What does this fold into?
Amino acid sequence: MNRNYLGEFEELVLLTVAHMNGEAYGAAITLDIKERIGRTVILSAVHVALYRLEEKGLVTSAVGGATQERGGRRKRIFTITAYGVNTLSEIRQLREDLWQLIPKSIRPSAV
Amino acid sequence: MKHNFQPPQWIDKFLRWRLPDEQFEEVQGDMHELYGQWLQENDRRKANRLYALNAFAFLRSLPESKSSYLQTSYYKKTNFLDMFSNHLTLAFRNLLRNKAHSLINISGLALGIACCLMVFLILRYELSFDNFHSKADRIYRVNTKFITTGGFAGGAPLAVGAALKRDFPEIEQATTINFAHERLLKVNEQLRKQKGVVYAAPEYFSILDAKWLSGNPRTALTEPNSVVLTKTTAKNLFGGEDNTIAQQAIGKTFQYEAAHTLKVTGVVDDFPFNTDLPFELFISYISLKTHASYLDFNDWISFSGNYTHLVLLKEGVDPASLQRKIPAFEKKHMGDVEAGRRTHILQPLREMHFDSRFGNHNGRVVSKENIGGLIMIGLFILLTACINFINLSTAQSIKRSKEVGVRKVLGANRMGLVRQFLAETSLLTFTATLLAVIITTLVLPGLKELLGLQLGFTPFTDPALLLFLALITLFVSVLAGLYPAFILSGFQPIMALKNKLTAPQSSTFSLRRSLIVLQFTIAQVLIICTLVVSSQLEYFRSKPLGFAKDAIITIGFPSENKPETSRALRNQLLQLPGVENVSYAAYAPSSESSMWSTFTFKGADPTQEYYIQEFLIDHTYLETYNLTLLAGKNLDETTDSSKIMVNEKLLQTLDISNPEDAIGYTLHWNGQDRQIAGVVKDFHATSVKNEIPSVIMNRGKWVSMAGIKISPNNLRKTVARIEELWKKTYPNSLVEYSFLDETVANFYREEVKLFKLFRLFSAIAIFISCLGVYGLVSFMALQRNREIGIRKVLGASVASIVMLFGKEFIVLILIAFSIASPIAWYAMNSWMEDFHSSLPIGPASFLTAILFSLFIAGITVGYRSMRAALSNPVKSLRSE
It folds into this structure.
């Protein structure tokens, strides 16, 4: 299957979009990543990742929801597409398969 | 505290410069949001630094702007189509919300469009006649004008065609045909009648188009007794398959009129039905020399409508200039006297279908006036339907004033609103057009039968028809939709939103009233016309013809009939039970055919010609047809040919007022002096609408038909007996009889068609008008719901409430009537102008029309207002 290659950061952003479920936009994603993973990311990096994902058809976007904090400017809300969900689960399956190949002796007990 | 700080403006300016417009808003929003967050966590300097860092990170190249990013809904520019789909959605919702009004509008429009569609089909059919000939615009037919009487006739003497070709270099080709109508053939010992028989020369096919399936166009008609058939005729005569018959038929022979053997030398494809030269069997012209040896091909005087000369002009020749040279040509050939009496007129081939002065070989002429009238009726009915639409939409406008107000406040411009309302109209019209196509499909078979036309209707494969449908949809949308659209879009938003707009009151708003007046004017004109045509027809049918037409059958003698045979037959016929009388003559008092000639008398004006219709009769003629003898005596079996009978009309020419005085008077006719032996009361030889001609009756041997008066009891049995006897007497011919009353009725078939068409169209017009009135009244009832409630509570009676609505419509219908009656009177007067005898247009038709309109409108208004008046006032008053 001709799956899109996803970079580590792109995967991170896609997962964030997926879990934020309709609330995902540039600033929110930046803050969420900072909060959950503790990684400081640059806004433009998030934007670029989002556009790439959209280009690949993994997310779609629509404009709406101006709020006070933004001085009335509208947000671009990203949502994950069915194709995006498939891609994520494929990546996960692949990882799972690789995990299973690790010898029991050295496999971290947590998984 | 956190919101007191604004991020550094210069960085925003940088972003503005760096980012494409479509991303700037979004990115800046994100940045500001983050800045707020940073301010909460850090001091202002740190936040500013982070802000700058993040902003400058956008220096990196962004993904190509071609990405789907640009195609998402927000950044796409709205275009016409977006608005259009929005308009359509709204239109659908509105249609569904006002089901009753949509139904009225759509059905009214559908009926109107269906009428137009039918008119279009009829017109296209009539206008298509003989347009398939490639040289049609250069082909002319030669007809005759009688200068002395101002009369016209189709055809010209036999010598004319060839002489024209000889004398005028402008003429590329000329040919003469002799139409022989129906003839008797005998194929393989089988007798059959063949219609569309014509004598034609090879040149015929170099002027007119035909597709030759076999045989040589140049030589097929050069030999005597050679014949060219159309494919269907060949199949009918010889049988065989479609694709082989053309070859098989060549060389076959058959008997013609029991006297000649014809040989097939060619087969042409069938001609389309839209031709006024509907020939099926071409006999070589040269055969006339033996088939009709009495014909004089150098005759310049006498002719029949069957002699048709066709000339093909060279390219670029002006027919008018050729026409101007014809009088000189006639002087040269006919001599001054004859040339002063008649002249020949070139008639364009395609005018043959429309000029009733000359007739054609199809037996059906459609006058340009009738076609114009048809177009008018179609358009007027469409207009009526459009008026419904306009009235209902403007009446309903109040319902939508809020919508318009809100739209305007939100920034809709007027043109946008106009477009929206036009889109709604278009949707409605489109639905109506589809419905009209369905209606037409259902109605067309009946219409074809009614009019006797071969109308084709293939709505989905016919480009001209599709174009017409598209145009009519567009036309109706604009005609019906434009005015309401401008009214609706013109509301002042504040007034509309404050509910200050009230329904335009009828007293102040006169457009709607004038439209109703117009509608009813159209409907009433049609009703009056229908009634007048119907009373005229009734008059034609019931006016005494001057002879008896009931229970008389006419049978033509075969051409080989000998006087001895028919003399013997007469006695046998008279012995049959049920036969009351038998008369042999050239034709019955009323007949499709007629013979004409001229006579002179002492004291006649030498510059004049006196035309009479000849009746070749026998001694039982008057008795059989119940003609009245006014003076003198009947021509009996012993009377010789110097004695004649005349009718009253001829006495006018002779200036004799008392029939008795005419007996013994001598006039000169057919190269002989004749004495008037009897005077017959005038009778109608053709349609009552024609003038009664002067008539001379004389006895002769060469009769061509028998008129048999039979008793009305056991009619069928008697006819069967006559048929049997006839077959026995003339084994070599087919018996074809017709009833005289049917022949007479046939004179009025065009009027009957007109009547049926009028009846149909006026029914549709009045129906559409009533739909409109119903819609309007129900709207008014809704509008004045509370008023009615209050009136009822205060004691108004049902009748007074019904009158509240009815009053206005009665006035409008009366106004419409006062406009409609002069129009109808004028139209009908010009219709009857060509009738010699007609019923004066009496007040009865007008009275009936107005009463009928009032009645129909009364029912419509009454029904709806009754419902309003009978409703419980509590309901209407509580509803607010």
Summary: Chain B touches chain A at residues 23, 25-34, 36-37, 53-54, 57-58, 60, 62-63, 67-69, 72-75 (CB under 8 Å). The longest strand of chain B covers residues 171-187.
